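idk why but the lab printer keeps eating my pages so im just putting this in chat instead. protein + flavin mononucleotide:
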Amino acid sequence: MELDPLSLDDRRRYGLMISLIQPRPIAWVSTADPEGRRNLAPFSFFTGITAKPLTVCFCPVRTRHGKKKDTLLNVEETKQFVVNLAVESNARQMVATSADVERGVDEFALAGLTPLPSLKVKPPRVKESPAALECELHSIVTISEGALGGTLVIGTVTHIHIDDALWKDGAFTHKDLKPVGRLGGAWYTTTKDDFEIPRPGGGA
Ligand SMILES: Cc1cc2nc3c(=O)[nH]c(=O)nc-3n(C[C@H](O)[C@H](O)[C@H](O)COP(=O)(O)O)c2cc1C
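predcted complex ->
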C-alpha cells in the first residue's frame, strides 16, 4: 500500500503517525507560569538530541482550535521546564495529567502527585518519578501554526535527579527504571520483553 500523507484528513494522519512511530518514550513535563502556578502534562513526541551538552526535546502540538498548550505557553514565558520520566508505577497518574483543563489548574493536585522543589529551575519535579531532568530552554522551532500545528521545544539539561535505589555501580538499567512507552491509540508498553544485540565491535 502507498499513502500520500496529504491525502489523509488531520485525524487519520495523526492516528497513522502514532501507530507508525512506536514505542515512544514519554516526557512528563512540569512547568510553571510567571505567577508560579504549576502545570504538568505528558508528551511522547520526545527524545534526546545530544549528550554534549545534554540536550532533549519534546513537541507540543497546537489544539484542534489552534491554541497553544499550557506547557508551551509556560516554556515560552519562563524559559524553563523539567522532564520527569514516566514509569510503570506512575503510568496511570501520568495519563491523568493529560486532562484538558484550564491554564492555571494544577495537574499535580488533579492526579494526587507530590511536587518537589527543583534545584536549578523554578518548576517543581514529580516526587513519584524516579528520574527528572531540569532544563533551561535552548530554543523553540515552530513547524506550523493553526490547528494541530507543530512545535519543537529544545532544552539544555542543567541538573539530573535519579532515585538512589536505581543507581547500581554508577549506572542504572531499564530493568530498575521500568519505563513505559506509548503505542498507538491508548496503548502503552513496558520493557519486560527485552533482548540484547551487541553492536559490531562490541559497543552499545
Ligand atoms: C502518553 C501521552 C502522550 C502525549 N504526547 C503528546 C505529545 O507528544 N504532544 C502533544 O501535543 N500532546 C501530547 N499528549 C496530550 C497532552 O498531554 C495534553 O494535550 C495535555 O492536556 C497538554 O497539557 P497542557 O495544556 O497543560 O500543556 C499526550 C498525552 C498522553 C496521555
